[in-house]
Specification:
With 90 residues, this protein is α+β, with helices and mostly antiparallel strands. It contains two helices and four strands, in the order E-H-E-E-H-E. The protein has helices at residues 18-35, 60-70, and strands at 2-9, 39-46, 50-57, 76-80. The longest helix has 18 residues, at 18-35.
């Protein structure tokens, strides 16, 4: 599978309460289970009006299907080709 970053524009998501995040995560997990082994949610970062979600997937098509079924937008899907960090300099 390839790694992707998905930008989801969701108004005021940064002010959601824990229960709202819990419900959103549960809905995403339900859809992931329905779609099967071609997609995995790794983690998400929440900003005021959007999330940046990291997924492993067989392709953009299954990410778009997850978005359609779950109701969470996939405004931009970007394939991640590699990662670097502080230890890359060593």
């Amino acid at each position: 599978m390839k790694k992707y970053m998905i930008e989801r524009h969701i108004s005021e998501i940064g002010s959601f309460e824990h229960e709202e995040f819990k419900g959103a995560a549960a809905r995403s997990n339900e859809v992931l289970a329905e779609l099967g082994s071609g997609i995995e949610w790794v983690e998400s970062y929440v900003a005021q009006n959007q999330t940046f979600c990291i997924y492993n997937a067989t392709g953009e098509e299954i990410i778009r299907k997850h978005s359609e079924i779950s109701g969470f937008p996939a405004n931009k899907i970007t394939e991640i080709v590699t990662d670097i960090g502080p230890v890359t300099a060593n």
